[in-house]
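in:
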């Protein structure tokens, strides 16, 4: 079964380890009862270990919100490598989020981080998305270039481990998500660009998530009408009751 992938990007939330563990506990309790959904939570670095579990939990995985481009250990103050993340149980790494791009992360850095993550045997969730839309469709070229440069230098053998998250920047932290029909159109476009790089088979298999103002109410339609393989959730992912509702609501979809 091709399971839906719901990723909670906690961003710089919550403010205490107690709160973090409370949210994680509720999600860890829900994940095993899901049938067609896998969930990932990506807490801030210092909370990751205590949000996980010594034993593996069905349908539950840990993620991180960033990673170093450096692969080997060494004198890199402030950096955290993919191997270190792997050692503490992380399986997915969010890369190229627009909030990181706004702080200077370039497409080239994104591709280096993706390579570091893949080399360590983890899955990168590579975020792409236009800042604004224009009627002439120039944003499609922007998106295409962003995807191509973010994947530059990544070998074909890694294509099955890559996840793409389409997050139109204007829909992040907004009142409403993008229209479902437009999400569908964009996800097809993202898959097409991926298949131009790695071939049609890889293009058919790649998981494309949608992110931007997803909540438990709009999530089912985004999955079924937007036809995406999963969601990258911000605010609603640190609202434990809402995120649990969201997981249950998408899990019953065919
Ligand atoms: P919101 O769901 O809060 O709009 O954030 C989306 C996001 O940036 C997820 O990565």
């Amino acid at each position: 079964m091709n399971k839906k992938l719901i990723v909670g990007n906690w961003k710089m939330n919550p403010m205490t380890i107690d709160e973090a563990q409370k949210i994680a506990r509720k999600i860890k309790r829900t994940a095993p009862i899901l049938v067609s959904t896998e969930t990932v939570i990506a807490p801030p670095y210092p909370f990751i270990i205590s949000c996980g579990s010594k034993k593996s939990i069905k349908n539950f995985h840990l993620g991180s919100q960033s990673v170093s481009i450096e692969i080997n250990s060494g004198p890199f103050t402030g950096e955290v490598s993919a191997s270190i993340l792997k050692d503490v149980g992380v399986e997915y790494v969010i890369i190229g989020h627009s909030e990181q791009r706004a702080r200077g992360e370039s497409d080239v850095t994104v591709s280096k981080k993706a390579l570091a993550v893949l080399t360590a045997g983890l899955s990168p969730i590579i975020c792409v998305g236009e800042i604004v839309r224009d009627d002439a469709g120039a944003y499609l070229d922007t998106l295409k270039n962003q995807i191509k440069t973010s994947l530059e230098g990544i070998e074909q053998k890694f294509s099955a481990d890559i996840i793409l998250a389409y997050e139109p920047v204007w829909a992040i932290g907004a009142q409403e998500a993008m229209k479902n029909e437009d999400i569908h159109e964009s996800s097809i476009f993202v898959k097409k660009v991926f298949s131009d790089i790695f071939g049609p088979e890889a293009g058919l298999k790649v998981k494309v998530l949608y992110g931007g103002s997803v909540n438990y109410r709009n999530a089912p339609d985004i999955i079924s009408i937007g036809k995406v393989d999963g969601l990258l959730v911000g605010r609603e992912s640190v609202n434990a009751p809402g995120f649990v509702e969201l997981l249950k609501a998408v899990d019953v979809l065919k």
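note: The chain has a mean pLDDT of 97.
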